[in-house]
Amino acid sequence: MKIKVINRSKHPLPKYQTAQAAGMDLYANIEAPIHLESLERKLIPTGLFMELPTGYEAQVRPRSGLAIKKGITCLNAPGTIDADYRGEVGVILANLSREVFTINDGDRIAQLVIAKHETAEWIPVENLEDTLRGTGGFGSSGVEKK
C-alpha cells in the first residue's frame, strides 16, 4: 500500500524494523529535550503529515520496550488517525513510573500500525438475538452461573 506523506522532521520516515513487523517506529521531532514527570502526559510532535486512503486508519501504539523498562505509554491507545485528518501526527505520552523520563529529539517514542476498518450502518431494532452470555458484563464470560 502506498501512503502520501510529508516529512517536516529532521528524521527518516518511519519504517518496519523487520519483514514481518506490524508497526513502524515514530520519532520525536523536538527542538529541546522534554522532561516527563511522574504521572505527567504531553503531546510529542513527529513532524509527519499523511494522507491515508479511505477505509484505513493509522493506529498510534505504545512501544513495548519503553512500557516495560521505563513505564512510558501512549494515552488513548491505540490512538486513531482518520483518513480525513491532515494535521501533524502527535503522540500523547504518559509517564506511569515514579521517575522523570527525558525524551530527546529523534527518540523512538511509539509505533504506527496501518489498519483497514469498516464503516458501520446502524439498524434500529426492538430486540437482539439471545446468547449464552446474554447481558453478563465485565468478567462474566467463562464463569458458571449459579
From TrEMBL:
Keyword list, A-Z: Hydrolase, Magnesium, Metal-binding, Nucleotide metabolism
GO biological process: dUMP biosynthetic process; dUTP catabolic process
UniProt-listed InterPro entries: dUTPase (IPR008181), dUTPase-like (IPR029054), dUTPase-like_sf (IPR036157), dUTPase_trimeric (IPR033704)
Cofactor(s) recorded in Swiss-Prot or TrEMBL: Mg(2+)
Binding site for substrate: 63-65, 76, 80-82
A family per Pfam: dUTPase
Catalytic activity from the UniProt record: dUTP + H2O = dUMP + diphosphate + H(+)
Residues annotated as domain dUTPase-like: 11-142
Pathway where this protein functions: Pyrimidine metabolism; dUMP biosynthesis; dUMP from dCTP (dUTP route): step 2/2
Enzyme Commission code(s) on record: 3.6.1.23
PANTHER family (alphabetical): DEOXYURIDINE 5'-TRIPHOSPHATE NUCLEOTIDOHYDROLASE
HAMAP family cross-referenced by the UniProt entry: dUTPase_bact (MF_00116)
Protein family (similarity comment): Belongs to the dUTPase family.
Designated name of the protein: Deoxyuridine 5'-triphosphate nucleotidohydrolase
Organism: Elizabethkingia argenteiflava
Taxonomy of the source species: Bacteria, Pseudomonadati, Bacteroidota, Flavobacteriia, Flavobacteriales
